[in-house]
UniProtKB/TrEMBL annotation:
<dbReference type="Pfam" id="PF14534">
    <property type="entry name" value="DUF4440"/>
</dbReference>
<protein>
    <recommendedName>
        <fullName>DUF4440 domain-containing protein</fullName>
    </recommendedName>
</protein>
<dbReference type="InterPro" id="IPR027843">
    <property type="entry name" value="DUF4440"/>
</dbReference>
<feature type="domain" description="DUF4440">
    <location>
        <begin position="19"/>
        <end position="124"/>
    </location>
</feature>
<dbReference type="InterPro" id="IPR032710">
    <property type="entry name" value="NTF2-like_dom_sf"/>
</dbReference>
């Protein structure tokens, strides 16, 4: 579990597992893991301001365009949004290759999770990231 979320108390306790699964899936390019964690109705605003659906968010992984070598999380804040929602704000230091170009960026993510019925647990329904200058 990432240090950023491992030490937080509830409501972070119930979402830390899913945040770590998301981090691991992003780092390894685990498409199946990402598909499981992302809600079908995902709305994600990337660091360029583009709104992504689940399918467009996954496209760089599917096409082999995005390979992360670093995804270090810190400064996490987790808030309950009702009984079945969580808001996570976290700082991320990233590095990797996108479409053949190396990059290193420090980002701030806001992620909104929704508890689902059945074995899926929590799903990421919305998110936003900004570059930290």
């Amino acid at each position: 579990m990432s240090n950023a979320l491992a030490t937080l108390a509830s409501p972070a306790d119930d979402i830390a597992f899913y945040e770590e699964r998301l981090r691991a899936a992003m780092l390894t390019g685990d498409l199946k893991g990402l598909e499981t964690l992302l809600a079908d109705d995902l709305a994600f605003v990337d660091h360029t301001g583009c709104v992504k659906t689940k399918q467009t968010h996954l496209e760089p992984y599917r096409a082999g365009l995005l390979k992360l070598s670093r995804l270090d999380l810190s400064d996490a804040v987790v808030r309950a949004a009702g009984e079945d929602g969580r808001v996570v704000v976290v700082r991320a230091v990233t590095a990797g290759v996108y479409d053949g170009e190396a990059f290193t960026e420090t980002l701030r993510f806001t992620r909104i999770w929704r508890r689902t019925q059945g074995p899926a647990g929590w799903k990421l329904v919305a998110g936003h990231c900004s570059v930290i200058l």
